[in-house]
């Protein structure tokens, strides 16, 4: 089995992690049983670039059970877990990843996945798709389609579609109801504060938290901060989102004003330079900076480094920057995704929903191969409803059904 991993001896620990999440992912378990019988991916090659931890590993095994040859790399150097890589490789998946890889190694791992000539891809942030459209264009004729996990990745795909350069259909899994309503909101909310609290070992209650961005991820981060007893300020560029934040009970103001007040800062925008030199200049001594957006560009690390007279590791996953006036600012997890780089990511039950959408969307692409346009496509309503129904069934929850009379009523504009 081909693989590029760091510590094969950690396989037993990784397999235990995968076994744990499997017990808490009933939707994927049901899909795996179905895939094992029908083998819809028999003889097909799937390339994956996702945060390589236990839940992702189980998704890879579900696709393998459906007949796929799976190759996978990590989408973030700090989120990759070496024990999980070893366990997954032992299960017959081609794994190209290790924790803390360099930018050069990361590019090598992406190319190793593409060397397997995948016909289907799953991406997280768009790096795999970007490489297919630049340095590895010779592989494009093989690609049936793919699926994207994140808001950031979909923004990149939309830009490619607008330019007419997107060469194959990509399902916007991030926009599926069973993804953004639960993964982005509840998953990001819980896992971000898990990462911050286990890294800092500080209280959140009584502190002022500044959340940059009030999309579904920002809503979750703000909601959980409020639940932990914090005063919450939201910064936004979208007037509709700003009004939502106000009506949800949060203060709204520009970052330059919020910067003076915050104890914790969490960026969740998908944009660049959200917190920069002008904001660092007015922050409190001891302010803590964390990012929960996909790339490490939301907090300007170059500005922070240029303003600091010294910096050092203050604790695992915390870097202390001492400014010229003596104020100390603390950056968590190198400004990368704090919920995965400094914790274990979203809970298994949350990722069960998202990864079920991924698995079923790949099957949808196969079933419609050659019939779909090279555009960003929505998750079908049928797939969303199937995933939601499978979760209710797993929980033992029943709901009502429309009667024939109710169906007729809703389908007609003529009523007696």
Automatic annotation (TrEMBL):
The keyword Cytoplasm applies. Pathway: Amino-acid biosynthesis; L-homocysteine biosynthesis; L-homocysteine from S-adenosyl-L-homocysteine: step 1/1. Binds 1 NAD(+) per subunit. Residues 184-345 form the S-adenosyl-L-homocysteine hydrolase NAD binding domain. NAD(+) binds at residues 150-152, 184, 213-220, 236, 292-294, 339, 346. Substrate binds at residues 124, 149, 179, 183. It is found in: Cytoplasm. Signal peptide: none annotated. Its EC number is 3.13.2.1. May play a key role in the regulation of the intracellular concentration of adenosylhomocysteine. This is Adenosylhomocysteinase. It comes from Neomoorella humiferrea. The gene is ahcY.
């Amino acid at each position: 089995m081909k693989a590029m991993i760091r510590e094969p001896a950690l396989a037993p620990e990784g397999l235990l992690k995968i076994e744990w999440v499997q017990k808490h992912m009933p939707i994927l378990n049901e899909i795996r049983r179905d895939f094992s019988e029908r083998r819809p991916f028999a003889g097909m090659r799937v390339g994956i670039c996702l945060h390589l931890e236990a839940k992702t590993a189980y998704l890879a095994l579900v696709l393998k059970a459906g007949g796929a040859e799976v190759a996978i790399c990590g989408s973030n150097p700090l989120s990759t877990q070496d024990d999980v890589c070893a366990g997954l490789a032992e299960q017959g998946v081609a794994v190209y990843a290790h924790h803390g890889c360099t930018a050069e190694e990361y590019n090598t791992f992406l190319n190793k996945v593409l060397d397997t000539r995948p016909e289907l891809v799953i991406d997280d942030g768009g790096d795999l798709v970007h490489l297919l459209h630049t340095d590895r264009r010779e592989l494009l004729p093989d690609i049936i389609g793919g699926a994207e996990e994140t808001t950031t990745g979909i923004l990149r795909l939309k830009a490619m579609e607008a330019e007419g350069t997107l060469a194959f259909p990509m399902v916007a899994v991030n926009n599926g109801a069973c993804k953004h309503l639960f993964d982005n909101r509840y998953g990001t909310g819980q896992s971000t504060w898990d990462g911050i609290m286990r890294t800092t070992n500080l209280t959140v209650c009584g502190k002022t938290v500044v959340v940059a961005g009030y999309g579904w991820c920002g809503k979750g981060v703000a909601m959980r901060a409020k639940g932990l007893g914090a005063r919450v300020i939201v910064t936004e560029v979208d007037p509709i989102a700003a009004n939502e934040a106000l009506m949800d009970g949060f203060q709204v103001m520009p970052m330059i004003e919020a910067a003076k007040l915050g104890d914790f800062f969490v960026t969740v925008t998908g944009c660049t330079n959200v917190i920069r030199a002008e904001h660092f200049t007015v922050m409190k001594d001891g302010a803590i900076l964390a990012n929960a957006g996909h790339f490490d560009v939301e907090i300007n690390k170059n500005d922070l480094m240029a303003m600091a007279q010294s910096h050092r590791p203050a604790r695992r996953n915390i870097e202390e920057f001492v400014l010229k006036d003596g104020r100390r600012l603390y950056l968590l997890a190198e400004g990368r995704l704090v919920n995965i780089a400094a914790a274990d990511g979203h809970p298994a039950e949350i990722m069960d929903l998202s990864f079920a959408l991924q698995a079923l969307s790949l099957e949808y692409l196969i079933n419609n191969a050659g019939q779909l346009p090279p555009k960003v496509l929505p998750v079908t309503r049928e797939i969303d409803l199937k995933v939601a129904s499978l979760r209710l069934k797993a929980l033992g929850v029943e709901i009502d059904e429309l009667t024939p009379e109710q169906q007729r009523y809703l389908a007609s504009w003529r009523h007696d």
